[in-house]
Design a protein that fits this description.
Largest sheet: 4 strands, mixed
Order of helices and strands: HEHEEEEE
């Protein structure tokens, strides 16, 4: 089933099948930055969303899982759920970013090591 057409400002959050194919055709990648998380055998609990949004999100997660399977990233970073967490599935590190203006909403990625460090927004030295 193809994702339904989304209209309005949320449309930019929903990748299309052609977006996924373009990512897959680019070949392997170490990092996947995306809005939602791919379906990799886990669900975030306690975060209710409207049923229509859940259906669209489930379609997007399945589409992203196809991309992950094809490009084999070592790290996936996303922010859709506004819930900070880290997990690992099938050898892939997954980092969810928190809500805007919270301590875990911004992270630094070391491209050499693929280590992710939360950016401390309360540190005046980092507010430049």
């Amino acid at each position: 089933m193809a994702p339904r057409e989304i209209q309005g400002p949320r449309a930019q959050e929903v990748p299309t099948t052609s977006d996924a194919e373009r990512a897959i055709n680019q070949g392997p990648a170490d990092v996947l930055l995306c809005h939602d998380h791919p379906s990799l055998g886990y669900r975030l609990k306690g975060l209710p969303i409207p049923e229509a949004d859940e259906r669209t999100s489930a379609q997007v997660r399945r589409l992203l899982a196809r991309v992950v399977e094809a490009i084999c990233p070592k790290l996936v970073v996303h922010g859709h759920w506004h819930h900070a967490y880290e997990t690992e599935r099938n050898g892939i590190s997954i980092k969810g970013l928190d809500c805007d203006n919270t301590d875990r909403t911004v992270a630094l990625l070391d491209l050499d090591t693929l280590e992710v460090e939360d950016w401390d927004l309360s540190d005046p030295a980092r507010r430049r």
